[in-house]
Amino acid sequence: MRRIACKSLRVNLLKVKNRLNNEHLTLFGFTVLALVFRLFLMRYHFTIGWDEPHYLQLAVLFSKGQILQALHPYWSPFYSICIALFSFVIPNFELAGRIVTLICGILILIPVYLFTKELFCRVSGFWAVGLLTFYSPLAFSTTTTLAEPTLIFFVMMGIYFGWKTLRKNSLKLSIITGIFFGFSYLTKPEGIGYFVIFILFFGILVIFDHTKSKNRRLLSIGLGVVGFIFIATPYLLYLHQETGRWTISSKIYANQQFEAQLFNNEEINLDTLSDNNTINPIDAIYHEGNFLKIVGENRQETSSIDLSLIVKKYITNFYRITKYAIPQLFGFVLLSLLVLGFFSFALPIKEIEIYFYLLSFVGLFWFVMVPLFHINDRYLLPGLVICFVWMGHGAHELTVWLKRGVNSWIQKKSITLKQSELHVIAFFFVIGFISLFCYIPELGKVVSRSEYSVDFWEDAVELKKAGLWLKEHVTHEPILMSYNKSVDFYAGSYHVRKGVTFPDNDHFDRILAYANHRNVEYMVVSERYLGKYPNLRFLFDNEKVPAVLKLIYEDKKNEGLGVRVFKMDPKG
User: Residues near 36 by Cβ (< 8 Å), separated by ≥ 6?
Assistant: First the structure.
């Protein structure tokens, strides 16, 4: 009997081992596919732009050990630090930045699988991972040099360890949770919002908990805060010293001002120079980093933000999110899978806490926090990743439902098929439906990108060429006046605080005065942005260019993408 029992135990252990190996092998296979797919998509990035050069510039400074110059009150530091660390292996900073986001984008698959598997089942977990692996908008975003994929990774890890804290009531895991949320905050300031949701959720559990675990959960909140503060405190102290006030980022106040411009009756343009031509609020926010200081010193007029504005903004933004942002984010197919997965699960009582824990990070952030601050599609991405948990289960439920439907139909037709064959038919039908009406069109948007698109928001390849030309012909780190700062990065200008943006002023003499005040050496203008800066159109007419500007570089090969570089010549 003992031999039989031991043999049976060995057989059972072997089955478990094989199952684990198959599960891990499948998950590993998805990560490989995710890597290959993202490497394929990377070829459709032609240059960097917008926020990207700032993170790369700061990464260069971090890699050189210039910590004080690399810290900035608007641009959170951790993504740039990650790039700086990778740059010791990959000297090309742009490639290093893409590798960081690529790795984080792939690692996101793991918590998504674990969430779905534990909340639903293993098959739903593989569906969730498969859908996430090949969803082009998210996959393409993980090949940029933006901080969002890194933010999503740390947010997902914070949520996952918070999940484990909730299940096991573990004090050690609560500290780890706080640490991961701390890194998410250091990656982007909105990362702190997810930590606030974690605290609120556990706080509600404590209020309604009348068991012996109440005190332990209360202690978990405290230890989570300790973990967060341990990671976040150095940057918070820097912000206080830099701005003169306690704040989580100057980005919060700046974005509130951008929003106030849209809702207030008074017109205070943050693109316009101060009366003495020494302050451009845009540069004070993005580059010099002293916006909060000059506001505190009353050297910059700002829009008033009162309760009526907040209420008006919240209602308007809530409408825009529900009416436009979320439908556009999902599309019909994924939204249908989300609804199916959300409502097709018979929820056991013991799973209610976990279910609503996960849901809170989507609902509270999307429908409470974002409308109060500033709508940006990128702010919704962490919530979208969480939604793949329900979408994966929805796809699994659709497959099961279709399998039953086909089985019922063939029985009426007296056709005999194996259950495995029915499953394959249902599986490929669902895959085909999702691909045909969602994934292939989304992939088409990426592969149809043109290197020489004249769209305002597309990759400015003309600025990359101009920047590389400057780097080759200028022997020092130049100070440029430009709009898209990709030209600064490619030109070897890495000190973000020295960046200078064209103000929105009609009198060019004032722009020149501001350029001289900021010690500008070169002006770079592109036809792509003349819609925003019609006041600079005359710089493409040789007869109207002021004598103080000397044309040293011009590229007009592609219509609508003409670019000119002028050297400031005071003697002109």
Answer: none
pLDDT digits (tens, 9 = 90+) for 361-394: 999 999 999 998 888 888 899 999 999 999 999 9
Question: In sequence order, what are the beta bridge partners of 555?
Answer: 563
Q: Which residues of 329-366 are buried (b: 16+ CB within 10 A; e: fewer)?
A: bbeebbbbbbebbbebbeeeeeeeebeebbbbbbebbb
Closest among 449, 473, 460, 452 to 526, alpha carbons compared: 460
Q: Which residue has the higher pLDDT, 230 or 571?
A: 230
- Residue type present at position 455: D
The SS3 call for residue 405 is helix
Helix (H, G, I), strand (E, B) or coil at 252: helix
Are the beta carbons of 515 and 540 closer than 8 angstroms?
Answer: no
Q: Which tokens go with 151?
A: 């933010």
- Predicted confidence at residue 374, as pLDDT, reads 80
142 burial level (CB within 10 Å; 0-12, 13-18, 19+): buried
Exposure letters 538-555 (e unless 16+ CB within 10 A, then b): ebbeeeebeebbeeebeb
Cα 91 to the center of its chain, rounded Å: 24
Tokens 């691909």 belong to 435
DSSP letter for 380, please: G
pTM for the whole thing? 0.91
Q: What is the largest CA-CA distance in the chain?
A: 103
Residue 346's pLDDT is what?
67
pLDDT at 258 over 60: yes
Rounded CA-CA distance 71/75 in Å is 8
Helix axes 2-42, 109-119, angle to 10 degrees: 140
Supply φ then ψ for residue 79, to 5 degrees.
Answer: -60, -40
Is residue 257 packed enough to be buried (19+ CB in 10 Å), middle (13-18) or exposed (0-12)?
Answer: buried
Name the burial class of residue 367, with classes exposed (0-12), middle (13-18) and buried (19+) by CB atoms within 10 angstroms of its CB.
Answer: middle
Q: Per residue in 139-188, pLDDT tens?
A: 999 999 999 999 999 999 999 999 999 888 888 999 999 999 999 999 99
Distance (Å, whole) CA 95 – CA 86: 9
Alpha-helical segments (H) within 321-380: 326-343, 352-364, 370-372
Tokens 């928001």 — which residue? 457
As given in the structure block, the two tokens for residue 526 are: 């592109």
